[in-house]
Amino acid sequence: MPQDNLLCIAVITGAHGVHGNLRVRTFSQDPLTIDKYKMVSTESGVLHKVKNVRVHKGDDIIVKFEEVTNRTMAEAMKGMKLYIQRSDLPKLEEEEFYHADLIGLQAQTLEGKPLGTVAAIYNFGAGDLLEIALDQQSSPLILPFTKVCVPEIHIDKGLVVVDISQILSNDELTQIEKVA
Fold first, then answer.
1. Distance CA 12, CA 121 (A)
2. Cα dist. 31→9, 54, 123, 169, 174 in Å?
3. Of 15, 132, 151, 158, which cross-links 141 as Cys (Cβ 3.0–4.6 Å)?
4. Average pLDDT for residues 135-146, to the nearest whole number?
5. In angstroms, rounded to a whole number, what is the distance separating the alpha carbons of residues 131 and 138?
6. Predicted structure pTM score
7. CB neighbours of 10 closer than 8 A, spacing ≥ 6?
8. Rg of the chain on CA atoms, in Å
């Protein structure tokens, strides 16, 4: 798999049982979709054929790779990230985005002032949150990833426009403008 076109879809969190099953945490909306990719790659480029997938407790799933036949092999894979080709992902609807496409975009205010860089996207159950790294000395800005707070996204330009006035007081806005 060409490295420049890979997207991380999961991480192996440990072994499960003695037959080489793996506990895996996926980064997809439906964790069981890893089964439809059939082949996944590790960071080192090793391909693994997905034999079966099943639900497990918590956020993990259990995955069996054809090539991993015992617990020792499975334990050695703990912490490995799993990748697929970007072209294997389903097409998105309008106003849908892959997190990997948003991370690294430059953030600017409605007035066009540079604000920082999209550093991460979180979801703790109540909707997506955007983390914007302002600078080395400041705490990041965390805002809801909604149309109100992020009215424009221009992936082709490497830019997101944010309306921080929706979540900050005038004093906080002044502090942010000093940093930016």
1. 20
2. 9, 9, 15, 39, 42
3. 132
4. 84
5. 12
6. 0.66
7. 24, 25, 26, 27, 28, 34, 40, 81, 82
8. 20
Beta-carbon neighbour count of residue 92 at 10 Å?
Answer: 10
Per-residue pLDDT of 28-65, as tens digits, reads 777 788 888 878 999 888 999 999 998 887 668 999 99
The more confidently predicted of residues 164 and 25 is 25
Q: In what order do the strands lie in the sheet with 141-144?
A: 141-144, 128-133, 114-123, 106-109, 159-162, 152-154
Instruction: Using alpha carbons, list the distances in angstroms from residue 79 to 23, 74, 136, 148.
Output: 10, 11, 28, 37
Q: What residue spans of the chain are helical by DSSP H?
A: 34-37, 71-76, 99-102, 170-179
